[in-house]
């Protein structure tokens, strides 16, 4: 048997670096959109050419775009931090106590199924139209994935590692900090990344309905004034900000979970 | 002088008796192996002896003092290395407090892992990981070391090296060893006494000082008898 014909594990099918591959699809779509709009095949008032959207972003940059971006980002940051912190705490409590799980988890699973927009009227009634309802809505969005990540992460910690912790007579809090939390971190990080993604989505839902600043407001304003270029500019910025924040979380994940000997660690073709 | 005295009057799992009227006494510095059929309660016995399992009727005495919870004086090494994957070798060995780097460096030399202190567990082979587990077990200077089939997951050559390492560190640290194993050869190679755990605990004194020959002919008959006993689920010696 010719052993050289056996494919080596971990050998990549593509030698191109990742970034250009990831850009291939959006770049092709942008070129296609530009051609279709410029040729008149698609009306420019419905789908502005990508170059027009870039021009709009540049124009917006001189007309208060930074304020919109900062407003939205701060809302996501505060709402996500609150929702994620609560998600970790409640998730840990549920994972560590069967009784707490029996009391809390069924209700949370029911609440989890409620769509984001369904919360909006209630939050407006309760908190008015200031920052509070937006932050609460974003926190709700972030809470559930983090809660799920914490429950599955802590609940799935290898009993044998906990037993080693018990050999050292670790107190409950030290056991949680030194054994449970690090062991649960992979699942928790997945929850945090999903939570951050949902926080951006819930932020848009909140700003679409009641805001005078923010990218959600820009979306709403663009629709009201029939400016598809502004709507698309806001969508592009949301995509970029969401991607940037996820890249930040991934960098944290790589840093905190560099001890893992996982399939993810460069073995995928 | 008795270092470890274990008396289990009754230990149950889900209503089923696992251990009943078992009494073991280990002299200080002695190496004793426990063999027995699968499910006869060998690992349960170590759980009780380590203080991890307190749900039984009986008592454990370490140098005459009752053990009701894990104590530094008793180290436990499991079948799997059970290293914390997010900690380096040094951090694993010194787990539980501020690591004493000098002592850890000495232990690493002793177990043949000099220079591997910064490695993460997934960079170690199975045998190396078990050496780290042994160093971790010794770090807190136990008077008694309990080992639960610690070499069962490594290849034959590594197992022999680890058995010799165990003998070496047991002598150097003057530690009393209680080894649970399913490997009769291993039990007769490393121990002064072999205890066959069943309805009745039977004791076999192993002749010969170390270094011993593996497969010493003097023990063949008794090894065969124990092996038949284990193969038949514990019936042969009773008959």
Account of the 3D structure:
The complex is a heterodimer of chains A (269) and B (239). By secondary structure, chain A is an all-alpha fold. Chain A has one domain (47-256): MetI-like (MetI-like fold). Chain A has helices at residues 18-38, 50-61, 65-96, 98-112, 116-127, 131-155, 159-167, 172-209, 215-224, 228-256. In chain A, helix 8 runs parallel beside helix 9. Chain A is globular. Chain A starts with 17 loop residues before the first helix and ends in a 13-residue tail after the last helix. Chain B has 239 residues and is of the alpha/beta class. Chain B has one domain (2-84, 143-231): Rossmann fold, CATH 3.40.50. Chain B is built from 7 helices and 10 strands. In chain B, the strands form 2 sheets. Chain B has a 6-stranded mixed β-sheet with strand order 6-7-8-3-9-10, with helices on both faces. A 4-stranded antiparallel β-sheet of chain B has the order 2-1-4-5, covered by helices on one side. In chain B, helix 3 (101-110) packs across helix 4 and helix 4 (126-139) packs parallel to helix 5 (156-172). Chain B starts with a strand and ends in an 8-residue tail after the last helix. The interface between A and B is medium-sized, with 17 and 17 residues.
Offer a few descriptive terms.
heterodimer; A: 269 residues; mainly alpha; MetI-like fold; 10 helices; 0% strand; globular; disordered N terminus; B: 239 residues; alpha/beta; Rossmann fold; six-stranded mixed β-sheet; four-stranded antiparallel β-sheet; 31% helix; disordered C terminus
């Amino acid at each position: 048997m010719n052993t050289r014909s056996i494919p080596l594990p971990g050998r990549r099918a593509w030698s191109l670096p990742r970034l250009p591959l990831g850009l291939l699809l959006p770049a092709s779509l942008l070129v296609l959109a530009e051609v279709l709009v410029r040729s008149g095949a698609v009306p420019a008032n419905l789908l502005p050419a990508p170059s027009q959207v870039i021009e709009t972003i540049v124009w917006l940059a001189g007309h208060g775009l930074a304020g919109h971006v900062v407003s939205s980002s701060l809302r996501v940051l505060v709402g996500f931090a609150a929702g994620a912190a609560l998600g970790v705490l409640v998730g840990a409590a549920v994972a560590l106590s069967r009784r707490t799980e029996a009391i809390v988890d069924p209700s949370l699973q029911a609440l989890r199924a409620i769509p984001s927009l369904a919360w909006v009227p209630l939050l407006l009634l309760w908190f008015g139209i200031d920052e509070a309802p937006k932050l609460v809505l974003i926190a709700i969005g972030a809470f559930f994935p983090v809660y799920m990540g914490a429950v599955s992460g802590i609940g799935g910690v290898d009993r044998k590692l906990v037993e080693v912790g018990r050999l050292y007579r670790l107190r409950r809090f030290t056991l949680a900090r030194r054994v449970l939390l690090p062991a649960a971190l992979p699942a928790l990080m997945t929850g945090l990344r999903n939570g951050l993604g949902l926080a951006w989505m819930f932020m848009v839902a909140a700003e679409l309905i009641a805001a005078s600043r923010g990218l959600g407001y820009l979306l709403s304003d663009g629709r009201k004034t029939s400016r598809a270029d502004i709507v698309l500019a806001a969508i592009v910025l949301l995509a970029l900000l969401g991607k940037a924040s996820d890249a930040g979380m991934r960098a944290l994940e790589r840093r905190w979970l560099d001890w893992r000997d996982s399939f993810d660690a460069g073995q995928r073709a | 002088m008795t270092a470890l005295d274990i008396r289990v009057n009754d230990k149950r799992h889900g209503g089923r008796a696992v251990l009943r009227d078992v009494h073991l006494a280990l002299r200080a510095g002695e190496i004793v192996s426990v063999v027995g059929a699968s499910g006869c309660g060998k690992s349960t016995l170590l759980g009780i002896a380590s203080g991890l399992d307190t749900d039984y009727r009986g008592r454990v005495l370490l140098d005459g003092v009752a053990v009701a919870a894990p104590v530094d004086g008793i180290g436990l090494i499991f079948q799997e290395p059970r290293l914390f994957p997010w900690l380096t070798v040094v951090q694993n060995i010194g787990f539980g407090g501020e690591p004493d780097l000098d002592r850890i460096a000495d232990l690493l030399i002793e177990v043949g892992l000099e220079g591997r202190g910064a490695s993460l567990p997934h960079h170690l082979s199975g045998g190396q990981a078990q050496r780290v587990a042994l160093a971790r077990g010794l770090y807190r200077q136990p008077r008694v070391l309990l080992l639960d089939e610690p070499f069962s997951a490594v290849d034959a050559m590594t197992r022999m090296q680890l058995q010799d390492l165990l003998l070496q560190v047991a002598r150097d640290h003057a530690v009393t060893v209680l080894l649970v194993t399913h490997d009769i050869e291993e039990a007769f190679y490393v121990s002064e006494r072999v205890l066959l755990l069943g309805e009745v605990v039977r004791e076999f004194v192993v002749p010969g000082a170390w270094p011993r020959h593996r497969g010493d002919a003097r023990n063949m008959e008794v090894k065969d008898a124990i092996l038949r006993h284990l193969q038949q689920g514990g019936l042969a010696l009773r008959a």
